[in-house]
Amino acid sequence: MSSAPSTIPVKPVAAGKGQRIPAGPERTQWPATIILIVCTLSVLVPLYVTISMAFKTTGQAVDGNAFSLPSPLTFDSFAQAWTLTNFPRGFGISVFVSVIAVAGEIIVSALAAYAIVRNWDRRLFRWSFFYLLAAMFIPFPVVALPQIQLTGLVGLDNPLGVAILHIVFALAFNTMLFTAFLRSIPLELEESMRMDGAGTWQVFWKLIFPLLGPMSATVGIFAFIASWNDFMMPSLIISDPELQTIPVLQKIFQTQFSNSYNVAFASYLMAMAPAIIVYLFTQRWVMSGLTQGAVK
Amino acid sequence: MPPLPPAGRPLSRRTFLAAAGGALTAFGLAGCAPSGTAPTITFHQSKPEAVPYFRDLAAKFTASQDRVRVLHDMATNLSASFVRSSPPDLGCLNYNLEMARFMERGALSDLSDLPAAASIRDDVLDLTNWYPTYEGRTSVIPYSVMAASVIYNRRIFEKNGLAVPTTWDELIEVCERLKAAGITPIYGTFRDPWTVAQGLFDYTVGGMINVRGFYKSMHAAGANVGPDSEVSFQKTLLEPVKRMVELTKYVNPDAASRGYGDGNTAMAQGQAAMYFQGPWAFGEIEKAGKDLDLGTFPLPMTGDPADLKVRVNIDLSLWVPEVANGQQGARDFLQYLMQPEIQNPYNAKFLGFGTTKDAPPVTDPRIVEMQKYYDEGRFYMGASQFIPNSIPAANYIQSIIGGADAEGTLRRMDADWARLAFRA
Questions:
Q1: pLDDT band at residue B18 using 50, 70 and 90 as cut-offs
Q2: Mutate to test the interface with A, among B16, B46, B83 (most CBs of A within 10 A)
Q3: Residue-wise DSSP of A181-203
Q4: Minimal Cα distance from A93: which residue of B?
């Protein structure tokens, strides 16, 4: 049991980076800076249009000048979007789905990865890992129809069903991330804890799960973004229109025959707000979390 | 960027799990909470501009009796709900080829015993038979018909001393005179393929050929459609399509990069004299400019004013699925919606034409010119509406406008049609 994980070399991540650039706070990398500034425009320009559109009147929104400043400034669009989508309820449902999806994805995948890594020498666990990985090649749209029928049959055609499906469909990728990270945790730590009389359950909750923190953050971020922004799954699975999530309710603003840019963007802004606010407070975790995901 | 405060004590596992569990229970229970004693029927209606209107009606009906509660639904995916065998109890949607598939397979119940079914104009009810039907059933009750033709700016026409054209030659003359006066005759929005199919293509084809007869023969020919068949896109539609291309000489030079929204704004600003769109565009044009005098006239395609016809479609139709749980409640609400004092104000407000035998004529000056044609049954449904989605007809037509060879493209549509018929 001890041989397999420890043979995998643990690579020091930070080595070899940033050494070509001579240290010195005054030197600015102008070419790189300019490229990055241009790149930020791809985010800032749409964001600017979104915000200014949301405060425009309907007449100004369709006059063909997307970049003009709103005049007069109006909050009507927010009020309209609020009532048209029944925003508080939709928002609550979206939060519900995201919370369960994030918590579930972290816990279930971490448990699975722990079991697999520590039992790597047993065939059942090894093959179950490959089995899980194979699921990465099955995207939701392929199995949408049977999923709709199945969830309908077992009474999961509601937000809870969507959250569970999110957990299941992300299981493959998340388990892979956790597995890779777990291999870098030395077995000796665990052994010393077992010497003191800890059981497997205790080892997992008191030692492994806290150590998995950075990777849990990564998984959590991906899980949040995926479930918060998802359109297709809730639109197909949830049968009760009163329990629909925000992205699906917002569909109403865009049709072939009508454009309500101002109301649509006001609604998008309100839907984007939590993601942006969460990001502002957890910036540091997000950064480290994303690079964790990139390295593995 | 201000330095971030040091991360406080991490959220303890137990608190986190407790919170998650609490949220789960709370929401789960909320979902099960009884929503009143009366059974709920779902009313699916997703035309966005009419959502507040119908939501209001649903609330009024719910308050007026205590047998059922009507729940307005604009978000459920229709196909998924049929797959799950829990479709909406009453649908109020655009009736088209996609919707007809549900009817063809018998998924919609028979409504012919309802008094509302008998009150519909025969030629309007017959419009549903242009699509595949389910033998012996009246599955769909048309609620609102939209008539579409050329939208024109009356002030521009008056200023240039122009009369509404009634023959093809007059139309060309109008275009030439507008062009000579430095005015864009027709505003084209060719970036959006559907606008080309809906406007230029449907109007030119519908004005020249018998759309229903054409598709009847096309279905009869099926896999044999091709250069030698009696009817085909390449033979039957070649003449109208050539005229369609001729009309593109009179569009704005930047038509290829203009979309539907741009067109509405341009018409609101009086940038062009004519616009090939339906009445749904009026609401959008109104958003961009109020002080306008717009009217509509059918596109003349022949030398005989007696051939003039308008394009119609069943904008809203009512249907009750076979497997719906709340059949009776749905039928009650359907009857409620069909009352003249409910249906007629809807059509007046949203520029639709009434579907019943005693519906009042439209009064809105923008569409009033089409009433005559609607009353006399001089209408057709858009030719592009009968081509299954598997054939990208709108894109083919767009490419013809963009300069592709008309004959070659129509030949390809024939080949697609034949292949699809062979597979079916």
A1: low
A2: B83
A3: HHTTS-HHHHHHHHHTT--HHHI
A4: B27
Provide the phi-psi class of B351: left if phi over 0, else alpha when psi is between -120 and 50, else beta: left
SS3 call for B47: coil
Q: Using CA atoms, how far apart are residues A161 and A101, in angstroms rounded to an integer?
A: 10
Q: Residue B91 belongs to what H/E stretch? A: strand B90-93
Contacting residues of B for A252, CB less than 8 Å apart: 46, 48, 51, 74-75
Q: What is the DSSP string of A87-117?
A: HHHHHHHHHHHHHHHHHHHHHHHHHHHHHHH
Distance CA A181, CA A293 (A): 10
Summarised one tens digit per residue, pLDDT across range A149-208 is 899 889 888 899 999 999 999 999 999 989 988 888 888 888 888 888 888 898 899 888
- The tokens describing A288, both together, are 């480290």
Per-residue pLDDT band for B398 (boundaries 50, 70, 90) equals very high
Compare CB distances from A252 to B51, B265, B287 and report the shortest one's residue: B51
CA distance B83 to B322: 13
**Whether the Cβ atoms of residue B259 and residue B193 lie closer than 8 Å to each other:** no
pLDDT of residue B37: 64
C-alpha dihedral over A170, A176, A180, A186, to 10 degrees?
A: 80
pLDDT greater than 50 at residue A2: no
pLDDT of residue B65: 86
The verdict on whether omega for the bond into residue A72 sits within 30 degrees of 0, i.e. cis, is yes
Neighbours of A190 (CB within 10 A): 18
Cα B79 to Cα A74, A149, A161, distances in angstroms: 38, 12, 18
CA proximity to A146, closest of B83, B102, B78: B83
pLDDT at B3: 42
Q: ipTM of the predicted structure?
A: 0.71
Of residues A249, A253, A284, nearest to B75 (C-beta): A249
A57, A62, A281: best to mutate for the B interface, most B CBs within 10 A: A62
Q: Is B262 on the interface with A (CB under 8 A)?
A: yes
The amino acid at residue A72 is P
Min distance B136 CA to chain A CA atoms (Å): 30
B residues 310..339 contacting A (CB < 8 A): none
Helix or strand (DSSP H, E) at B71: strand B69-73
CA distance A21 to B55: 64
Q: List, in order, residues 6 or more apart from B383 with CB less than 8 Å away.
A: B201, B202, B205, B206, B209, B211, B214, B215, B237
Q: Is the pLDDT of residue B400 over 50?
A: yes
Grouping H, G, I as helix, E, B as strand and the rest as coil, residue A151 is helix
Specify the pLDDT at position A20.
53
Q: To which residue do tokens 């999530």 refer?
A: A245
Spatial distance between the Cα atoms of A253 and B286, rounded to a whole number of angstroms: 17
CA distance A289 to A279: 12
Q: Is A103 in contact with B13 (Cβ distance < 8 A)?
A: no
Q: Are B157 and B164 in contact (CB under 8 A)?
A: yes
**Angstrom distance (rounded) from CA B112 to CA B299:** 36
Question: Is the pTM value of this prediction over 0.80?
Answer: no
Query: Cβ B77–A236 below 8 Å, yes or no?
Result: yes
pLDDT for A5 beyond 60: no
User: Tokens 């480290």 appear where?
Assistant: A288
Which two tokens mark B237?
Answer: 């539609």
Give helix A213-229 / helix A261-295 axis angle, nearest 10°.
Answer: 150
Q: Which two tokens stand for residue A285?
A: 């975790």
Is residue B274 predicted with pLDDT exceeding 90?
Answer: yes
Q: Does A282 touch chain B (CB under 8 A)?
A: no
Cα B297-B123-B215 angle, rounded to 5 deg: 80
